[in-house]
Amino acid sequence: MVILAIGGVGRPVRALDPGENESWVTVEQFERVLDTVAGREDVGLTFDDGNSSDVEIALPRLVERELTAEFFPLAGRIGQWGFLDAEGLRKLVDAGMSIGSHGWAHRDWRRLDGSQARREFETAPKLLADLSGAPVRAYAPPFGAYDRRVLGRLRRSGATKVYTTEGGAASRDGWLRPRVEVRHDVDQEWIDNVLADREGLYRRAGRAIARVARLARF
Prior knowledge:
CATH class: Alpha Beta
Number of strands: 10
Distance between the termini: 27 Å
CATH architecture: Alpha-Beta Barrel
Number of helices: 7
CATH superfamily: Glycoside hydrolase/deacetylase
Mean pLDDT: 92
Strand content: 5-15%
Radius of gyration: 16 Å
């Protein structure tokens, strides 16, 4: 299957981090993506960062098309301006969406000290689970960055799914799942190419799996 990674939707209501605008799409672009994937069982949808647009813009459009998605908020930004709050998390869960963890502070998990690692891998998912009322066992490393040490920490944390941003096809039952990032310049041609390029996706997936196999020998 193909798993799409989406950042924010619509006009940002907060100041974006450097480069973050690359992962924001307009409402029109977002609706075009949803209309194309609606009814397809070979496409998954995920959302990173926990922007307030997840509930205000994305959720009603997902529900309208009878689509579900996995959301990966930053636990340390819950309740901050422009991000989801506890009520928003519960709205997502009540609508049939899933909650995973994007960590606490959007830092590179390959470069954590002991206290930072505990906050990213223990405190963040626990807070998200407590606020949403649903267990959190899926993770999406910030920047899609990981190495053997990160994978080991995720396994010890009880992760059942780990989402990256390497692109390519993903196994429905895979533990490590590559995603394709939806960028600010997405158009219908890009969508059609991503969903139709099965051979190319599987070639890239094969390279990713080989790379992961080397990393995962721990």
